[in-house]
């Protein structure tokens, strides 16, 4: 029901004796949830860079021949999130410089690219219609073309980058990973054989049999080449981890900042049970994110669980656009209720968030139509009232239902018997990290990284309850 989409997932691998392209494929497969629009891998055999990119899911983009053609001992990969407008391959990554000697993949978003554009313009190398990731690459490439090593070129470019970014980059002989000073987007380091892997989430490390070493620190640059692994702290760490990684984006088997996502989401449910007392027959999760939440809620409240909504797991596997009638029945494409389980029952339904409210409204109607007597909707995060500028594909603020409706108005709009959002305090306590280490801008409008010219897009006149 969320409608929020992650920017992407990234991976970087270095290892002389490793099947790098194959490992990159399976790591991207594990990170599929972070992007479904396009996927790409670049590798190097020490002499040349090889790239393959395509539209669609990882399993659709690559063939056995593609993987074999991606030769070498260094590789980076990228899954792009699904977006509306523009061709799927238009901005697919990794992005490459003009002579195919340097490649970059980026997870995150830069609200302002003025500093990068001004720098490139001053050097008379600014190109038209460049996205943020390409501008970062162009700035680094300028320094490389002028005889600077890749790590030093990145060091010089780092102060020009304003926003959220986890980056993996490579040339013929070196893999580099960088995380912004706020650590907004996740990035983890692992070892595999005699080599190394960096990936957006630890679930990718587990998938390829790598051993988790640690998270890359905010503001840190890792350099991996024939000399091994070295680290440079480019900026003082100011942790502001994106709270929505815990709410929605990360896989439940991933570990972020020492916290297993599965355990965090169970805690959300326990706190919901403390904050709202309901007399219902069963509690039902909206699969899949809310499943651990429901387990925690049931454990704390004693209310039994029913898996009364069945998810069609292949709904994203087609490029065939639904017609208008299918769009109207979009809930039925994704979630099928079980009338035999729901009939005559008072139910609590748990989901992770409400964005526009339209899908939620359809689901509530579907549940009543399936025979539910009461539908109490519980949300495992506070109301989303502000847009994101750091790598989450949020709608414009005017399309966020909680930016112009109170909780009671939202309840009436969606037609639920009752509606309750997890409190911000409950959310933070469930995660177990200090509040000042988390970015909570979606809920409060407090943006830790300067939005610069984009600040004018934020309206702070929103409902308080």
Indicate the percent of residues in helices: 25-40%
Give the tally of structural domains.
2
- How many strands, what sense, and barrel or not for the largest sheet? 7 strands, antiparallel
Could you tell me the number of beta strands?
23
Unreliable stretches: 317-322
In short:
This protein is an alpha+beta fold.
Q: Could you name the key traits of this structure?
A:
23 strands; seven-stranded antiparallel sheet; 465 residues; six-stranded antiparallel sheet; 25% strand; 29% helix; alpha+beta; Rossmann fold; Glutamine Phosphoribosylpyrophosphate, subunit 1, domain 1
Record the SSE blueprint.
Layout: E1 8-14, H1 20-30, E2 38-44, E3 49-55, H2 58-61, H3 64-69, E4 74-80, E5 95-96, E6 103-112, H4 114-122, H5 132-145, H6 150-157, E7 162-170, E8 175-179, E9 188-192, E10 195-199, H7 202-207, E11 211-215, E12 220-225, E13 228-233, E14 241-242, H8 244-249, E15 255-256, E16 259-260, H9 261-275, E17 282-285, H10 291-301, E18 309-311, H11 324-328, H12 330-334, E19 335-337, H13 339-342, E20 346-351, H14 358-369, E21 374-379, H15 407-414, E22 418-421, H16 424-431, E23 438-439, H17 441-444
Parallel strand pairs: 14-23, 17-20, 20-21, 21-22
Antiparallel strand pairs: 1-4, 1-10, 2-3, 2-4, 5-6, 6-7, 7-8, 8-12, 9-10, 9-11, 12-13, 15-16, 18-19
Helix pairs in contact: 4-5, 5-6, 9-10, 9-16
Notes on the structure:
The strands form 6 sheets. Strands 3-2-4-1-10-9-11 form a 7-stranded antiparallel sheet. The chain has a 6-stranded antiparallel sheet with strand order 5-6-7-8-12-13. It starts with 7 loop residues before the first strand and ends in a 21-residue tail after the last helix. It has 17 helices and 23 strands. Helix 5 packs across helix 6 (about 150-155) and helix 9 crosses helix 10 (about 290-300). It has about 475 residues and is α+β, with helices and mostly antiparallel strands. The longest helix is centred in the middle third of the chain and has 15 residues, at about 260-275. It is globular, with a radius of gyration of 23 Å. It is about 30% helix and about 25% strand. Residues about 315-320 have low confidence and may be disordered. The chain has 2 domains: about 10-240, Aminohydrolase, N-terminal nucleophile (Ntn) domain (Glutamine Phosphoribosylpyrophosphate, subunit 1, domain 1, 4-Layer Sandwich), CATH 3.60.20.10; about 260-435 and about 450-455, Rossmann fold (3-Layer(aba) Sandwich), CATH 3.40.50.2020. Strand 21, helix 15 and strand 22 (about 420) form a beta-alpha-beta unit. It has helices at about 20-30, 60, 65-70, 115-120, 130-145, 150-155, 200-205, 245-250, 260-275, 290-300, 325-330, 330-335, 340, 360-370, 405-415, 425-430, 440-445; strands spanning about 10-15, 40-45, 50-55, 75-80, 95, 105-110, 160-170, 175-180, 190, 195-200, 210-215, 220-225, 230-235, 240, 255, 260, 280-285, 310, 335, 345-350, 375-380, 420, 440.
């Amino acid at each position: 029901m969320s409608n929020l989409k992650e920017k992407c997932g990234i991976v970087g691998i270095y290892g002389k004796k490793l099947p790098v392209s194959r490992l990159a494929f399976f790591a991207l497969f594990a990170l599929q949830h972070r992007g479904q629009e396009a996927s790409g891998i670049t590798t190097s055999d020490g002499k040349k860079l090889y790239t393959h990119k395509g539209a669609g899911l990882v399993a659709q983009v690559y063939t056995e021949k593609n993987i074999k053609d991606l030769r070498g001992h260094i590789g980076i990969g990228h899954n792009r999130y699904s977006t509306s407008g523009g061709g799927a391959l238009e901005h697919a990554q990794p992005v490459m410089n003009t002579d195919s000697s340097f490649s970059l993949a980026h997870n995150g978003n830069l609200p302002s690219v003025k500093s990068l554009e001004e720098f490139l313009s001053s050097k008379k190398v600014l190109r038209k219609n460049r996205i943020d990731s390409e501008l970062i690459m162009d700035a680094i490439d300028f320094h490389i073309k002028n005889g600077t090593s890749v790590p030093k070129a990145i060091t010089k470019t780092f102060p020009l980058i304003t926003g959220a970014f986890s980056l993996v980059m490579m040339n013929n002989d070196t893999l580099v990973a960088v995380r912004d000073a706020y650590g907004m987007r996740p990035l983890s380091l692992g070892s595999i054989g005699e080599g190394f892997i960096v990936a957006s989430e630890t679930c990718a490390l587990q998938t390829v049999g790598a051993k988790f070493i640690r998270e890359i620190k905010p503001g840190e640059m890792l350099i991996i080449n024939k000399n091994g692994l070295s680290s440079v702290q480019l900026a003082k760490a100011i942790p502001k981890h994106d709270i929505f990684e815990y709410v929605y984006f990360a896989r439940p088997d991933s570990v972020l900042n020492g916290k297993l996502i599965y355990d965090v989401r169970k805690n959300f449910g326990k706190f919901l049970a403390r904050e709202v007392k309901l007399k219902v027959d069963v509690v039902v999760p909206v699969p899949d994110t809310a499943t651990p939440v429901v387990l925690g809620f049931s454990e704390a409240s004693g209310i039994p669980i029913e898996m009364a909504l069945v998810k069609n797991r292949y709904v994203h596997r087609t490029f065939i656009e639904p017609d208008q009638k299918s769009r109207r029945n979009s809930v039925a494409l994704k979630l099928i209720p079980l009338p035999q389980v729901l009939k005559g029952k008072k139910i609590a339904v748990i989901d992770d968030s409400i964005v526009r409210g339209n899908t939620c409204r359809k689901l509530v109607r579907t549940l009543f139509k399936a025979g539910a007597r009461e539908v109490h909707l519980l949300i495992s995060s506070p109301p989303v009232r502000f847009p994101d500028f750091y790598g989450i594909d949020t709608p414009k603020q005017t399309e966020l239902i909680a930016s112009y409706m109170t909780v009671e108005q939202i309840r009436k709009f969606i037609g639920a018997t009752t509606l309750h959002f997890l409190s911000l305090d409950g959310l933070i306590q469930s995660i177990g990290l200090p509040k000042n280490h988390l970015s909570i801008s979606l809920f409060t409008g407090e943006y830790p990284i300067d939005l610069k010219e984009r600040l004018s897009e934020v309206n702070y006149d929103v409902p308080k309850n």
